[in-house]
Amino acid sequence: MNNRITYKGIDCFKLLAALGVVAIHSALPFFETIGRLGLPYFSTITSFFFFKHYLKLHTKKKKINYLKKFELRLIWLYLLWQILYIPLAIKNSKQFFIYNGFSFKSCLKYLFDLLFKLWPSNINGWFPSWYIIGMIFAIPFSIIAYKYIFQRNNYLYGFFCIMVEFYFVLCSGLGFWAQLNPIISPDSFPRFLIYIFFGFLLAKNLKVIRKFNFNTI
Questions:
Q1: What's the angle, vertex CA 164, arms to CA 161 and CA 166, rounded to 5?
Q2: Using one digit for the tens of pLDDT, what is the confidence trace for 92-136?
Q3: Omega into 120 within 30° of 0, i.e. cis?
Q4: Which of 56, 72, 105, 112 has a CA 20 to 30 Å removed from the CA of 217?
Q5: Widest Cα–Cα separation across the chain
Q6: What pLDDT shows up at residue 128?
Q7: Element (H, E) at 61
Q8: What pTM does this model have?
């Protein structure tokens, strides 16, 4: 406990980012645009603090237990959050199965919509609550993909994350490109991959970063 560090700058930006998220959903001019930085910031910082501890663990068992603890904390937070939206979730889920029928295929589609938040099903009750469930799946997915698919190659995995991000940029259209019809919604857990990887790199190279002084930055 004596080795704990308080990052005052991070706390200040967390407050600003939180206000920015409120600005997004209340459509405040200018602040709504600035608020778009909130999601990248929170997911990067969450990833940074997760890997800051995770990378110090030397056994597979300890890493798995820490990941479980992290996931359970997010799951409880999500379930408590969802209590408020159970009526809407039931209503939207009922409409989903009326439209799609009840079958094994429709159940798989229901699960897919829950994970990737495809419009217009909105089956979790309130669409903006996708952030928490997105982080629940994004962290373990990132670990598995980085370790087993990309064999811990930072360049290959980083390129993969950039391509995923570029896909979501094309889906947004940016007002002048031909907008793609997204197979996977930008409001889903793959959206976090590049930010989680960035947080991982910050945690992994923390000793190097601490050597930077203000003039260097």
A1: 110
A2: 888 888 888 999 998 888 888 877 765 556 787 766 667 888 899
A3: yes
A4: 56
A5: 62
A6: 64
A7: helix 60-82
A8: 0.81
